[in-house]
Amino acid sequence: MAVAIKKTFGSYLETVDSGPVKKLRLQTFVADAKTSKGGKTAIADRKLQALSQLDAYMGNAPPATGLALRPGAQPPPPVAATSACSNAPAPSATSNVAVTNSRELLDILVKITDEISYQDVDLSELKEAAAKIMQLYQLQERDSDTSIRVKLLELLSGLGCEGATEQAVTLIIDHFIYLLRRESSQKVLAQGMMCLYRIGQRRKSMVPTAYNTQVAHLAKEQLRSGSTHTQKNAMLVIGRFATKMEGERHYVWKLAFYIDSQDSGVRAQALHALLSLGERGSQLPAVLYKRAVEAMKDDYECVRKEALRLVFMLGNRHPDYIIPSDRQQEDLRMIDAAFSKVCEALCDLSLQIRVLAAELLGGMTAVSREFLHQTLDKKLMSNLRRKRTAHERGARLVTSGEWSSGKRWADDAPQEHLDARSISIIASGACGALIHGLEDEFLEVRTAAVTSMCKLALSRPDFAVTSLDFLVDMFNDEIEDVRLKAIYSLTAIARHIVLREDQLEIMLSSLEDYSVDVREGLHLMLGACRVSTQTCLLMVVQKLLDVLAKYPQDRHSTYACMRKIGQKHPHLVMAVAVHLLYVHPFFETPERDVEDPAYLCVLILVFNAAEHLVPIISLLPTATHRHYAYLRDSMPHLVPQLPIEGASSASATHRIDLAMRQAGSSAEYLQMILSHIEEIFMMTDERVELLKTAQFNLQRLGAIDADMYGTSNFLETFLAAQIQIEQMQRCASTQRSRIPLKESLAALIRNCLKLQHTFSGLNYGDILQVKQLRLRASALHLVLVVRDRSQSALGPCQMLLQTASDIGEFINANSKDEEELSLGVPIPLTEGEKLETEASKRDALPDCFTLQLLSKLDAISDPKPGRVFREILPLVQQAPPLALPPANENIRRCVANILEPCPLQSQDNVIKVTAGLIAAVPFVAEIDNLLESQKADMRIKIKYPDQHIHTVVPKRSDFKPIMTEQGEHETNVRLRTTILLSHSVWTEASLVEIQLCLAVRPGSELELCKPAKVLFAPKPVRRGI
């Protein structure tokens, strides 16, 4: 069944169950419908039915009522358990029975914990379940097995974590406060603190301020406990529940006291709680810095890690706080001292701490320039000894009065033994820290160091120039991920640097890397960087052409690299254009092949440079002008518009630009089309032909303006489905009309699925209109199939019931959200998302056809196809047209472009293989606007000439984000894999079609691109001579 899921940020997503259609599904729907009519109690009983197993252990105790305490109210007295034991047998028999009952009860509690479901529980049921758990908790003896009370608290916390309202959450917190204040077992207290922490994590927005204060005060009392486990969990609760003001006044110093605890776990948890308070907005005092620095010398890794985080936070919170220093002449800023301490942690013995220190360095952008540059200099300090100049050494020798042999200058001068404490630890800590990180033996540290260096270089252009040589050296790292990280980091800081010839030699040597990701990353980096001289430019171009000859599959990224290089170096390209094109000053050279990839690279380079420096055009030979016209038509995204005479595309492009300016913006033209469609819907005659004309206009608009492609294609598909429904509606209105073919019905359902699954960025109104359209299509499908009487109607009837259930749940979820919003329940959305969502919900309401159809289907007790057909036939025949949703510019469509196998070269290269064996074909495709949830539905469909179809499921690791100069693209990915072709013997080579599609349900694949065709020739097995 299709289920509408509402995410926290207000977007909607629909998934369709791909189970086979069976007759039993109709009976299941009837049972669900009856259950829904019975009310919410049946659902809640089924959710918490597992708790009924505890009734046998309740004894004769009076029933407990649900607590509804408020801060300051007196809790009820505990339930007396003496009545349940008034007729107890002898003490020995009683103990044996108690042990047996305890074991049985513990087993049942463990079973209930695994089976129970807390979702969608009504408030009354939650109160009853909480009262039952609390009553059973109070019946347990204080000296009995604590495991039972621990499991009961875990069940109680499950109710609190899934509470949907503030009243439910506060009720559970009241129970916890009441029980924990009377508990003496440290094991139970520790579990209670952990349960409160989980509730605070899951329902932090529903806990009132008064309850935050009360829970934090309860946890503060538990800090005096003798159990370190209880203390650690209490600190967790304080970090989660303490308010900003109380944290600054009371809890910061209380937690700081436990930094010196004897237990390492308590010390680490105290530091972690301070970090939690700081992250939640509390102002941590700067004087805690000294305590955090001392904790960085702890013997335990967990303490040093939290202390390192605290030093980082304090340095960024109080950057200009002056720290007095006894070891230097001047005082230091706290951000400089903290930066040095983090650098010092890069030499820690623990791998995790070195990785953390390398990651934190990138966030300390306010550090002073001299400290920042000191991280790249390893020669300032050597074994904590300051390097003295020759003048200083000579002056010291003269003042010492010692004799010298004269063989060497200052050979017998006494070595200066310096105490490590007399040298500035700050200077030694920051000295060469990033170099140590780049040279670490573990790739995690090297990767984190490269990332931090990139972040610091982005904020400091002078540091970017200094760090360039070190990033270039990382291109030779043995690990591919480290090389890629260095390449992408250098790409990000490319706007601050200019490459020299010696640096280019190292970079260009990496272009022959076996990894295609490294080569494409280098193409992206070279396109983003600038070179200094003509020699450097020729080196880059020649190396790119040599590598292209070795790896022809890199032509797409090489073309893009040449385009960027030409745009960034027009003057240098002008100086070398004659050399690159082989133009002779006296003789006419032969015309080169325009299909040659090397020649194409040079043309793309020159044409893009000519866009910024027009005199380059005068240096080009006449044949190049004809080649420009061809490339402008075949590669418009790589070749810009140039004022070249004789180019056929110039006049055509000028006419298109002039027409676009006269028509106005694309958004205005789209609104004009939508207004015309509304007028067409008012007409009665010739409506279909006019709608088809509007559909063609929407299709052309998406082809002209790439920014409006998603919106126009969505409206065009919606209108196409509307036209199909209207044409089929005429067949259903009269008895003598011809029933449409199965292909027409399948095309209508396919359009509905395409609207649901290939478009993203839809708001509430768009999703509602799509669901209503699919409901109409399903109802019309059932009517036509029943009227046809040549095929079974069980499948269409089941589809209609599923679609009706889906849209009913969607509308009910919207009404529930509106009720929660009216009651003041907070929803985590930004202001813009709130306004957009409220506007779309206010304007989008279900139409009368949808409401009437849902009410009729809900009234049917036995939904058989014939009964459903008779009920919905009048509605389907008289259904008015469904209005198009308003234009939404945020809509994007998932589309794909197959790069390999190349459509141009596949016709010339025949894949030959012995029949029955396997041929491996590389497959590369770029997919735009692909959501993370759609990766699991992606399929590669292989269609053989004999109409046999094979479907391949690509691995999740084959999807990698497309890198840009700004970083990873959010929704555009590249799929790189290998597909296997195999078949029996053919007489001659035939075309095999390879296509990307989304498998939304069995038998319904939505194509995302045109198929790529390859010639495949399985040959017979050769026999021996």
Automatic annotation (TrEMBL):
Database matches in Pfam families: INTS4_8HBD, INTS4_C
Stretches assigned to coiled coil: none
GO CC terms of this entry: integrator complex
InterPro entries per the UniProt record, alphabetical: ARM-like, ARM-type_fold, INTS4_8HBD, INTS4_C
Residue ranges constituting the INTS4 8 helical bundle domain according to the UniProt record: 668-888
Disordered, as annotated region: 73-93
Keyword list, A-Z: Nucleus
Domain Integrator complex subunit 4/Protein SIEL C-terminal Ig-like: from-to ranges: 898-1021
Primary subcellular site in the record, as a coarse category: nucleus
One biological process term in Gene Ontology: snRNA processing
UniProt-annotated location(s): Nucleus
PANTHER family, per the entry: INTEGRATOR COMPLEX SUBUNIT 4
Name under which the protein is recorded: Integrator complex subunit 4
Gene: IntS4
